[in-house]
User: What shape does this take?
Amino acid sequence: MTDAAIPRFTGDASPYAGGDPYADHRTADFPFTHLVDLADRRLGAGVIAANDEFFAERENLLKPGPAVFDPEHFGHKGKVMDGWETRRRRGVSAAEPHPTADDHDWALVRLGAPGVVRGIVLDTAHFRGNYPQAVSVDALALPGSPSPEELLAPDVKWTTLVPRTAVGGHAANGFAVDAEQRFTHLRVNQHPDGGIARLRVYGEVAPDPAWLGALGTFDLAALENGGRVEDASDRFYSPATNTIQPGRSRKMDDGWETRRRRDRGNDWISYRLAARSGIRAVEIDTAYLKGNAAGWASLSVRDGEDGEWTEALPRTRLQPDTNHRFVLDGTVLATRVRIDIYPDGGISRLRLFGSLTDDGARTLAARHRELGG
Assistant: This one.
């Protein structure tokens, strides 16, 4: 179900008239975009099938960054668009030239991390007169790595996240979602045809407790394992969520960097772990941050909602473009973690190695059952 209070865009955008193609792009501040993008390719997401991609490939939906528009770029099939675009649907005869009300195109999306979806953005950037009349989104949860044929089997039950809704061209079309379930795949539908530039699926990772239990020791802060950013002092240059993305940072803006402080304070990020855990080792990585790495960092933990913040790692000097490793004196119990950097700058990754406590594992398993896992 969607939230009617979120801005809606309908109708064509004006034809491109030169200059910045985003100057007339219609968008809004959606309340859920601070959450992790469950359809991020870095988490392993993919567009695994589509019924049609005649003009532009389905994989473009999940490309990072905004869609690019080159007004001079044409190919053998027509205008080359940075998105997913299907051919124009037609009716069955000259007497019935228009598609039926049920005709639509679809794409199947595997989420990079299973989770609870809180909001979806279907951006039709640069699709000004060739966007779909309406969109809808369905979701399901299946274990393992199902094939497109298994996902489309007649006995598979899909849950509607976004009912059929009119959308606008050259616009970020946002939808709040209220479905307290864990999903692994989406089916994005455009009615009857057209193009969508980007898909973003914002929500909360809901990890498989059986998998984490089998791993034993793992990165407790990682997005894919259920860690999440709760708050940060500064998101000026890049989101704090970058610090718990998979793998090492690949460039400077793939980490977290703050604006330059001109006061006597410091910057920080607070995280919530998937469940109560015992932390035994810490990595603070400043990869690609050379003249703007944090000078020092400290780590504090909180055990429970009412617990006090206690220091787990004292203020320690950081080097630029370096992965720093620390073995803690003993196992540190925590449900939340905070890293403070001094005085400003950035880090690229924070990794917290340890394992769930027994009560943390039970809490996570109960939550998994509640979400239909």
In short: The mean pLDDT is 95. The chain is about 5% helix and 40% strand. The longest helix spans residues 358-370.
